[in-house]
Design a protein that fits this description.
Helix content is 41%, strand content 13%. The chain is an alpha/beta fold. Helix 2 packs across helix 4, helix 6 packs across helix 9 and helix 7 packs across helix 9. It is globular, with a radius of gyration of 22 Å. The strands form two sheets. Strands 5-4-6-7 form a four-stranded parallel sheet. Strands 1-3-2 form a three-stranded antiparallel sheet.
Length: 286
């Protein structure tokens, strides 16, 4: 990298807000975030976020891709690695190891992956009363979005015994595998031999008000309420739209959850963050 290319990058990052935006995009990794998610995560007005994203994009620090009605933004990590190499290539007369800086232009490819995180796999249990719609959708989405970092499960306080047909239809339309899904009791996850949960989220108000079993592992808990699509009446298309809406709402909250640097936060801070996510508005209707 030449000085003329480095200067615009530094200028773009000179704003504290833009620095926060870029660091958050680095944290979430290749999945990226849409502008609304970034604004919510950083508690910024949407108009301000658009301005800062435009500046970062013009500097090459952020790339964007059209996704339906939204733009998804991702950090340009190759550019950042090049910037770090530019800053350190002549450190200590070309010997950065002398001051503990591991990066040089010729060995950037041998540095640690840009999205370092804990090796821990987090177990997450989603609960609703019937375990036929909301909790099932959440299980499938997190297992896909959090591959390699999260293992999701779902259960119900009063399981219906079958996954709702429209749940399966919505998930299958998005290409998700559904053959393994089943409606099951939360008692399965209270047994001593059950997987130890790190997080338990209730996704319906009824379950949130019930006395839960004692979960092995003392997981962190939070309530993420969503309207029950099963209760929507009318045409099949109207009912299907209700299931699709819940899926989109779950995606938004799960992406906020996935953006949390869990390995860097203490238990109290994580609890505050997951509670905050549960209070975020979920309406994604036009």
């Amino acid at each position: 990298m030449e000085k003329s290319a480095a200067v615009p990058v530094f200028e773009a990052l000179s704003s504290g807000v833009r620095l926060d935006v870029f660091r958050l995009l680095v944290r979430v990794g290749p999945q990226g975030m849409v502008a609304g998610e970034l604004a919510a995560a950083l508690d910024l007005p949407a108009t301000n976020m658009s301005f800062h994203l435009k500046t970062l994009t013009q500097a090459g620090l952020v790339s964007s891709e059209q996704e339906g009605r939204y733009q998804r933004y991702r950090a340009n990590m190759p550019l950042m690695r090049a910037l770090i190499a530019y800053l350190t290539e002549e450190c200590c007369t070309g010997m950065p190891e002398a001051c503990g800086i591991p990066l040089r232009r010729h060995d950037v490819s041998q540095t640690k992956p840009e999205f370092s995180m804990s090796d821990k796999t987090y177990n997450v249990l989603f609960l609703c009363s019937a375990n036929s719609a909301r909790s099932i959708i959440a299980e499938v989405l997190l297992n896909e979005l959090g591959k390699g970092r999260f293992k999701a499960y779902s259960a119900g306080s009063h399981p219906s015994g079958a996954v709702h047909p429209l749940t399966l239809q919505v998930l299958q339309a998005q290409g998700y595998e559904t053959g393994h899904l089943r409606s099951k009791s939360w008692e399965e996850f209270a047994r001593p031999d059950a997987p130890k949960m790190d997080f338990v989220f209730t996704v319906c108000d009824q379950t949130a008000g019930e006395v839960c079993p004692t979960w092995p592992g003392q997981p962190l808990t939070a309530h993420w309420g969503f309207a029950d699509p099963v209760k929507v009446e009318g045409s099949e298309q109207r009912r299907l739209d209700a299931f699709s809406l819940v899926q989109n709402q779950l995606v938004n909250r799960l992406r906020l959850f996935l953006s949390l640097p869990l390995e860097k936060l203490d238990r109290l801070a994580i609890r505050q963050e997951i509670d905050r996510i549960g209070r975020e508005p979920v309406d994604t209707g036009a």
